Amino acid sequence: MTLPLLDYYKAIESTSRAMLDAALEADWDEVVRLEGACALLIEQLRENAAHRDLSAEERAEKHRIMMTILRHDAQIRDLVEPWIDDLGELARPLQPMQLH
């Protein structure tokens, strides 16, 4: 049984919200787990969307959902970037000491 296309979009929206919640809690393992769940949902959507069209109302709802997902993504990136910068500092080799 295949779901209505909007149900896939709604599931992705819900999962992206859960990712944002996890990022706000700095639960990066959960963020990664949910990112995998999103990837699976997106793949399922692609497989099911190939031969199905949305009505004008459904396209408007899809647009709203996509904008929400993009906002969640931007907020998650804002939370992740400082962590990535810190990680980059840790990974950078130590500068040799200069003795005079």
Summarize the structure.
The protein has 100 residues and is mostly helical. The chain has one domain: Methane Monooxygenase Hydroxylase, Chain G, domain 1 (Up-down Bundle). It contains three helices and no strands.
Describe the overall structure.
By secondary structure, the chain is mainly alpha-helical. It has a single domain (5-86), classed as Up-down Bundle (Methane Monooxygenase Hydroxylase, Chain G, domain 1), CATH 1.20.58.380. The protein is built from three helices and no strands. The longest helix has 36 residues, at 56-91. 15% of the residues are buried. The model has no long low-confidence stretch (mean pLDDT 87).
Residue stretches low in confidence (pLDDT < 50, at least 5 long) are none
Radius of gyration: 19 Å
Overall mean pLDDT: 87
In N-to-C order, the SSE pattern is HHH
Count up the domains. 1
Q: What is the fold-level CATH name, i.e. the topology?
A: Methane Monooxygenase Hydroxylase, Chain G, domain 1
Described by strand count, sense and barrel closure, the largest sheet is: none
Residues in helices, as a percent range: over 70%
Number of helices: 3
User: Structural class, please?
Assistant: mainly alpha
What is the straight-line distance between the termini?
A: 75 Å
Strand segment tally: 0
CATH homologous superfamily name? Flagellar protein flit
Please state the overall shape, judged from the principal axes of the Cα atoms: elongated
CATH architecture name:
Up-down Bundle
Strand content: under 5%
Name of the CATH class? Mainly Alpha
